[in-house]
Amino acid sequence: MRLSATVQKLAPSATIAAAAKAKELKSKGIKVHEFTLGEPDFITPEHIREAAKSAMDAGHTHYTPSAGILELRKAICDAYQRETGVTYQPSQVVVSNGAKHSIHNVVTALCGPGDEVIIPAPYWVSYSALVELTGATPVIVETSEESGFRMSAAQFEAAITDRTKLLMLNNPCNPTGAAYTLAGLESLARVAVERDIVVLSDEIYDKLIYDGSEFKSFAAFGEDVKAKTIIVNGCSKAYAMTGWRIGWTLAPTEVTKAMDNLQSQQTSNPCSISQYAAVAALNGPQDCVAEMLVAFSQRREYVLQRLAEIPGISLATPGGAFYAFFNVSSYFGKPLGPAGKIVDNASDFCTALLEDAHVALVTGDAFGAPGYVRLSFATDINSLKAGFDALQGFLDTK
Ligand SMILES: Cc1ncc(COP(=O)(O)O)c(C=O)c1O
C-alpha cells in the first residue's frame, strides 16, 4: 500500500518510542528504571474518578457538542479567570482529546504550505511534526543552557519573516523545565503584537512551578496580546489525568469556530465521561494539585542533588514541569558501562544506557538538542534513587 508523502516523513513520537523500548525489556522480565514518559505516577484524585462514575450512571454516555459540554467550557473559563484574572467566554473554548490534539487543531486551523512557524529549541517532540503535517515549515530558534533555554525577544524578532504565521511557545517547557521570567515573556508578547504574529501558548505545566519561578499566562499581558494568543492547556499533568484525554484551547472567537469545525469533522467530541471528570477537576477542591506539587518539588530537589554529584554533567535548573534536561556530551568518546561501549551522540548514549544499565531516558536529539538527555521525575524517590545509582554505575562515577 502506498502511504501519503506526508505520513511517510512522519517519525513516531520519540518519547513514546523510548517508553516502548523500555517496555520491551520489561516484558523480558528485566527491571527497568523508567524515566521516559511525562506522566504523573499518581492515580487520578478520587473525587474526579467518582464524578466519572456518576456521569456514566446518569447516562452521560452519548455524543456531546463537538467543542465539549457547556458545563466544562464554563468551568475552564471560570478556572482561567480565577487563576489569571483574564476573561474568556465558553464560545471561545474547544475541548479536545488531550492538549496534543488541541495543538494539532491550532496548527491545522492556521497553517499551510508556505507558512513558517517559529519554535524555540529545545522543543516538545510533537511541535515540529505537527507543523510539518500541515505543509508549513518549522523555523527552529536555538536557545542555550546559559540563557536558561529561553528565547529572547531579539531572537524572536530575528526569526520573523513575511511568511511567519505562528510562534509555538511552551512555558514552563518540556523538555528543559525552563520557566520564562515575566519580563522575558512580556518582551516576546510585545514583539508578537508589533509584528502581528499569533502565539500558541502551551501552558500545560502552568501549575507545576518551583521556588523562585513565577508563572503568568501569555494572554494576561493585555487585551492586544490576548487578541494574538491561543492558550493550550488541559487536565493531563496537573490533575494526573493523562489517560482521560482532555485538553483545550482558549482563543479569539473566529479561530475557535474554525477549530470546532475541524474537530467536528475529524473526531467529534472528546469522551463524554472524561468531560464530566474534568468539570470535577476544575470546579472541585484544588488540594490535590498542591499535594502533587509538593511531591514533585521534593523529587526535583533530589534529582538536582544527584545530578550535582555527577562530574561533567550540566543543566539549566528547571523552574517548572517535571523534567531534568542535562548535557552528557562530556561522556562521549569514553568507555561506558560493563561493556565499555563508546558513543558519540545522545541517542546512542540512551540506547547503551538502556541496554547495559536498564535506565530509560529520552535523547535530546528528539527535542532538537544534541548532547542532552531528558529525565522525567514524575516518579517516586525510591525509583529515582535506584535509577541514579544505575546511571552512576554506568558512568563509573560512584
Ligand atoms: C508541552 C506539552 N504540551 C502538550 C502535551 C500533551 O498533553 P496531553 O497528554 O494532554 O495530550 C504534552 C505532553 O507530554 C506536553 O509535554
Uncertain spans: none
Nearest-integer average pLDDT: 96
Order of helices and strands: HHEHHEHEHEHEHEHEEHHHEEHEEEH
How many E-type strands? 13
Spatial order of the strands in the main sheet?
2-8-7-6-5-3-4
Radius of gyration: 21 Å
In CATH, the topology of the largest domain is named Aspartate Aminotransferase, domain 2
Q: Any idea what the shape is?
A: globular
Structural class: alpha/beta
Describe the structure.
The chain is α/β, with parallel strands linked by helices and 398 residues long. It has 2 domains: 5-43 and 288-395, Aspartate Aminotransferase, domain 1; 46-283, Aspartate Aminotransferase, domain 2 (3-Layer(aba) Sandwich). 41% of the residues lie in helices and 14% in strands. It contains 14 helices and 13 strands. The chain has a 7-stranded mixed β-sheet, sandwiched between helices. It is globular, with a radius of gyration of 21 Å. The N and C termini lie far apart (52 Å). The chain binds pyridoxal-5'-phosphate. The site of pyridoxal-5'-phosphate has 13 residues, from α5. Pyridoxal-5'-phosphate (PLP) is lined by residues 38, 98-100, 124, 170, 174, 202, 204, 234, 236, 242, 247.
Q: What tags apply to this protein structure?
A:
globular, 41% helix, 14 helices, alpha/beta, seven-stranded mixed beta sheet, single chain, 14% strand, 398 residues, Aspartate Aminotransferase, domain 1, four-stranded antiparallel beta sheet, Aspartate Aminotransferase, domain 2, binds pyridoxal-5'-phosphate, 2 domains
